[in-house]
Amino acid sequence: MPLIVSVSGARGVVGDGLTPDLVARLAAAHATFCGGGPIAIGRDSRISGPLVLQAAASGVRAVGADVLDLGIVPTPTVQLAVEQIPARGGLVVSASHNPPEWNALKFIGPQGSFLCAEDARQMLELFGKGLQRWAPYDRLGAMKEQPGAAEAHLRKVLGLSVVDVPAIRRRRFKVVLDCAHGAGAVVTARLLEALGCETTVMDGETTGIFSRGAEPVPENLGGLCAEVLRLGADVGFAHDPDADRLAMVNEKGQPAGEEYTLALGADHVLGIRQGPVVTNLSTSNITAEVARAHGVELFRTPVGEAHVVQGMREHGAIVGGEGNGGLILPECHMGRDGSAAVAVILSGLAARGWTISEWAGKVPAYSMIKAREQGSVPVDRVRSAMRAAFPDGRFDERDGIRVDYDDAWVQLRASGTEPISRIMSEARFESRARELCTRAQAAWRTAAEV
Predict the structure, then answer these.
(1) How far is CA 61 from CA 138, 174, 378, 417, in A?
(2) How confident is the model at residue 1 (pLDDT cuts 50, 70, 90)?
(3) How would you class 183 by CB atoms within 10 Å of its CB: exposed for 0-12, middle for 13-18, buried for 19 or more?
(4) What amino acid positions are annotated as catalytic residues?
(5) Got the DSSP string for 34-96?
(6) What is the pLDDT of residues 186-205, one digit of tens each?
(7) Above 90 in pLDDT, residue 417?
(8) 4-148: CATH, from 3.30.70.1350, 3.40.120.10, 3.40.1110.10, 1.25.40.10
């Protein structure tokens, strides 16, 4: 299995693509790029986590930089810690939504956000050319425990201006939190307690034996849906293993869909202050409708948190993120944050007095279809096939190929996290979205057969 390298980091199957020597050299290149230490490192709960973290720490120390070990924490906790300590950079050992045999390194710069595309290119060039600055025996970096990162993250979320803590406490929400034995409970369970919620935590132990599919998509949330119904809860929340994403289940025990995390979160933030919104080219038009309703501009970027963050900085966005359940609040830090998203959603519910289903029902509904094809094909062949399949559409090639119509869109792109090609389409009516997706799948297969 080859290593997959993108702005989302370097990830692969442990022992088959992702090996300790490779991890050490990547980490050494990152520490060299950051100009030395200290480098903060945190991980999710995957079984391979201790091995991969030690390999990464060895690489960092071998170039003379100190390692600050944050332990098992969410990805956004590491990002915030880099900013607050401050550290020269950070590493997250997590393959996010990938299955348990995968792991990865995610590279954080000194600002506490993932390396932008150009910085990542330069860092990987150091790695590829073997230009790490190896230190002599008497100048090796040290390994130090760095406690308190989760508590600092919790304090930051509770202090956000868009989170009305007293209002949430007055509502005494009944909440079910599904962590799937990932890192989510480390911050979010404490957050819900601090917000006065009556909380039931599902699989909160950080064993790394995922109790469901790692990705918090509707087909993996059956247990959470049942528990919300059984307990009569107001809302169910689900994280992926590193808790940068948040999915919701409404009071009826129905998945709200990951797209609504960003859409409703943005709706709440924009109701308090005005400003631009940035999301990616694969995110639903639901968020675009929310921005339009508040009279603000929405800008799109290629997929990947680093691309969205760069776009947010360029446009001075006050909120942004990705439709996979990733809400970004610059007031908190420049990264997707599942715990912050929980606080924002609960604050929005408290302010409106609505249920999740009522709130979601206030924004225009769209139907989104998602498909995947194994492998990838050359861009020129895909472009030719897509132009033949959609001769009347408006093409955007910033991230794969997206074709827009007045009433719908379809996109075909290579995944940056898995060895697949993703096809997504969206329209007001499911039949229209499905028709576009089917045509794109046929175009991909035509290109693959050439």
Answers:
(1) 11, 46, 40, 28
(2) low
(3) buried
(4) 96
(5) TTS--EEEEE-S-TTHHHHHHHHHHHHHHTT--EEEEEE--HHHHHHHHHHTT-SEEEEE--T
(6) 999 999 999 999 999 999 99
(7) no
(8) 3.40.120.10
* CA pair distance 85, 88, nearest whole angstrom: 9
Cα(162)–Cα(267) distance, rounded to whole angstroms? 11
Architecture of domain 165-360: 3-Layer(aba) Sandwich (3.40)
Contact status, residue 64 vs residue 52, Cβ threshold 8 Å = no
Buried b (16+ CB within 10 A) or exposed e, 271-285: eeeebbbbbbbbbbb
- Asked whether 276 and 316 are in contact (CB, 8 A), the reply is yes
Q: Within 13 Å, how many C-alpha atoms sit on residue 180's CB side?
A: 30
DSSP secondary structure letter of residue 273? S
Q: 377: pLDDT confidence band, cut at 50, 70 and 90?
A: confident
d(CA 328, CA 346): 16
Helices and strands, counts by H and E, the chain: 15, 22
Residue 450 has what pLDDT? 62
Helices 149-158 + 75-84 axis angle, to 10 = 90
State residue 62 phi and psi, 5-degree precision.
-70, -15
- Distance between CA atoms of residues 337 and 439, nearest Å: 35
Total Cβ atoms within 10 A of residue 140:
17
Domain with CATH 3.40.120.10 in the chain: 4-148, 165-360
Residue 157 and residue 182 in contact, taking contact as beta carbons nearer than 8 Å: no
Beginning with the edge strand found earlier in the chain, give each strand of the sheet holding 326-329 in spatial order. 298-301, 277-280, 319-322, 326-329, 333-336
- Predicted confidence at residue 308, as pLDDT, reads 97
The CATH class that applies to domain 367-449 reads alpha beta
Share of the chain above pLDDT 70, in %: 100
Residues with Cβ within 8 Å of residue 244, at least 6 apart in sequence: 74, 75, 76, 96, 305, 326, 335, 336, 337, 338
- Per-residue pLDDT, averaged over 313-341, amounts to 97
Asked if pLDDT for residue 356 goes beyond 70, the answer is yes
Confidence of residue 73 (pLDDT cuts 50, 70, 90): very high
Residue 356 phi/psi, 5-degree rounding, is: -60, -45
| Cα distance from N-terminal residue to C-terminal residue, the chain | 24
Tokens 């096809």 correspond to what residue? 423
Q: What percent of the chain has pLDDT over 90?
A: 92
